[in-house]
Each structure stands twice: as C-alpha cells, then as structure tokens.
Amino acid sequence: MPTWNWPEMREHAVIVAMGACTPLGRDVWASAAAVRAGISGFVQHPYMLDTAGEPMRAAIAPWLDIGLDGADRLAALLFPAIDEALAPVSSASLAPLRMAIALGLPSARPGFPESLPQQMRRRLQHHYGDALGSAACFTAGHAAGLLAMQAAVNKLEQGTLDVCLVAGVDSYIAPLALEWLEGCSQLHGAGPSNNAWGFIPGEGAAALVLMRQAKARASGLQPLAHVLGTGTAMEDKRIKTQTVCIGEGLTQAFRNALGGLPDGTQISDVYCDLNGEPYRADEFGFTAMRTQASFVAASGFVAPADCWGDVAAAGGPLHLCLATVAGCKGYSRGDMALAWASSEHGERAATLLATARRN
C-alpha cells in the first residue's frame, strides 16, 4: 500500500503526541517496542494464590509498590503517560487554547470504589491544576478509552475544544479484583483446577493529545496520525448471561467507524483486546465476516494482552498508540489501522486511524 498523501486529506482530528506506561516499559516507545518483539511481562504475584494453591500470574508494573492500590495506583500509572504526551507540545502555543481531558476508567468492580471518577478528578486537579481543563470520565471498562476518543473527536469537530487529551488507565492487580476474576472463572491458570480459557490480569495507562489539523498546523505540531472515524454501539448479548453473542453490537461499532474509510482503501492493521476468552474471539469472528470487504486480512490482528495482560480501560488508547508508533517507525502493514474494544457491560467501540507510514 502506498504512503498516504497527507496534504490531500480533509480536516480531521489528529494525534500530535502520545505517552504510555505499562509493565513492559515506562514510556510509549519502550512499550511499543516490547509488544513488537513479543516480550511478556507476566510474573507471579508476590502473595496472591489461586484456589489450586499456585501463585496467580499477572503483568505488574515492577517499579510500583505492590501495596499501592485504588486511585493512587491508577494515578501512578496515568500521570507519567500524561506527562510524556504533553512534553512534545509544551513549547507550542497551547496556553490560550481551550483544553480538556477525556479519561477512560474501569467499570464498577471489586477493588475500586464507586467514587473513583471523583477521586481521579481530584488527583488530576491536585497534580496539574487547571492546565488540563475540565475532565470527563468514562467508566466503561475495555471500551472506555475509545468512548473517550469519540467524545473528544466530537468536541473538536464541533469547535468547542481546541485540544483534548484522550487517556485510559486500569489495573487488575488489587487482591479483591483478582479474587473476583477467579470467582467469575476468568483468571487464567494452567493447573487442572484452573481456567485455561481465562486471561492474565494487567495494568497500564496511555494518553494521546488530539487537535484539529488546522490548530496543530498553527501551533507548529506535526500530525502523527489522523482520526478518520469512530464508532460505538451496545451489545445486548453479553458475557455472564444466558445468551449467545454473534457480534451484532461490535459490527455496528465497526460500520460506524468504517464510514470514514476512504474509497478504494482497506484496513491493513488491526489492534484489539482479545485476551484468550472464547466469547471475545467468537464475537470478533462474526464481526469480521460481516465487514471483511473493508480489511486486507482481518485475521492479521495484534492482541497485546499476550504481552502486557488484559489492561481493560487502558487498552483502547494503548492500542491507538501502538498503531501510531508502527506508522511513525515504518513497520505497519499499511496506512489504515483500526482499534476496537469490547466491554463486559455491552459497550462496543472502534476507532479508525490513518497513520503516517513511511516506506
């Protein structure tokens, strides 16, 4: 596929900077390089044992105290990602611009209080003051970061914001969360009493700086990727219910996002939150069959959960970072990338990017 001709693209929201913090690396470039190399961040939890008496396996940020939990742990993951994303734009003329942050957070589950959004807003205010503007929180689990992306793009296109920081953060490392996962038969383990079809819990954060293309140009910032489309939907047939999901919600989210695909082009790169659970694979299989004409090969996806574990609400922004890095570094398969996510409560979301691939 030829390199995209950027000047011919109509005005879109663009990604001008990004940051990440994962068990594989403390910045976006190290994390992306580790995923590309297939490096695993899985370790034995220092004290949590499963029902078979074996140490639980997880992908844990090794520089964080294992006792750090709740909103404090999320902040310790999120703030370095935000700082990295803001660093390249700190010298640009952003001060007079209208700015906000759209933040993807975990959905309700053991290990986090219902007041988590309020707690995170307070920590953002304490750490950054008014520099980030207002904060909108999306407590939707896996799809949260891509829901935040759609909201940010809408605000930028409506002209109500000049800059928006799209971020996501999550952690399954709290003992209550790990016990809950095992109780739901979702914790992966290799023993005869364990669930081989569960997932490895992970944690991480990512942040992307979005602007309208004209504003980026006026600020002297080079687009790293264009956001061509976003899509969201709800799936009624969810996990942990007596129903069979055939990907209707995810298909609708795909189709909404793929409406921005330029004529004559196909998706070359797919990033997703497949984590080993069969229902996710089945859902994607049905969706891929319905939308296969839009893909070079829908089966050629990248699922980083096999490296940094399931990172839930952090996944969408992290996957967009991976797609953007692959374009910037020249190892993407083409110029069009799709990231998608599927939440347990039914939220489905997808984002289409044109990446700055260089041959």
TrEMBL record:
Domain Beta-ketoacyl synthase-like N-terminal intervals: 133-216
Cross-referenced InterPro entries: Beta-ketoacyl_synthase, Ketoacyl_synth_N, Thiolase-like
GO biological process annotation, one example: fatty acid biosynthetic process
One Gene Ontology CC term in the entry: cytosol
Lineage top rank: taxon: Bacteria
Record has Transferase as a keyword: yes
Keywords: Transferase
One Pfam family, short name: ketoacyl-synt
GO MF annotations in UniProt: 3-oxoacyl-[acyl-carrier-protein] synthase activity
Database matches in PANTHER family: 3-OXOACYL-[ACYL-CARRIER-PROTEIN] SYNTHASE, MITOCHONDRIAL (PTHR11712:SF336), POLYKETIDE SYNTHASE-RELATED (PTHR11712)
Name of the protein this chain belongs to: 3-oxoacyl-[acyl-carrier-protein] synthase-1
Organism whose genome encodes this protein: Pseudorhodoferax soli
